[in-house]
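quick one before i forget lol
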Amino acid sequence: MTSHRLDVLIQGYPGKSLCHGGLGWSTIALIRGRIAGRERAILIDVGAFAVRPEFGRQLQAAGCAPESVTDVVLTHAHWDHAVNYTLFPNADVWIGRVEMDWATGTPVGFNPLPELYVQDLARHKRLHLLEDGERFLDAFEAHLCPGHTPGCLVYRYTGHDVPVVFSGDAAKNRAELLSMATDMTMDAAASRASLDRIWGLWRQAPGTLLIPGHDLTMRLGEDGRPAYVGQRRAGIAAWFSEDLAVMEEFDISAPRF
């Protein structure tokens, strides 16, 4: 089997704002290669509005024009993972059937669902609704892992040198995986069962990478614990003085484990 190319374009961040609502720094990954009989460029999640300038720069640096993206694979319908599907006019969009049934049936309210985008997505001409256990695009398996939302999907992908598990927000970060508890869940018991399922997928083959919704890529170390692959880079620059040219920078990268 020819290995496909995998790039993490936007690295998710394992934190949340204390005073200003959702942080929304979620992971975006790009897979390219000959998949399901043709050359494809597949995005796993597509981020929030605020990420668009950096997302565009990263796509350009990877040599991937928005028009060349063939598939957008969504882990769930929340705004910070889903709204930018509109930037890819030629792409098929893949999401769980359970997730779309829930999202389209949820009334407008103060929640992370982008209502107008959900309604638009439901009418998308190239929308594919996935079932639990379904295999699609040759190298992907969809696994229903509810809790964070009722229809969160985790994807196991076997087209890379080693298998890759995309856990989305069913397992947002390393702390959730180790503590077996989750922040921002609609059903704590369901989330716990989903974490068990994710661990099972991760342990299925040696060397498997796990790419979470809001953290660095990880693999299991010799001690069986998640070890980060790569280095986090994150910071905030703020204007606190009277001079626009003077900014205070805060490094929020945090240590490696």
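fyi The first strand starts at residue 5 and ends at 10.
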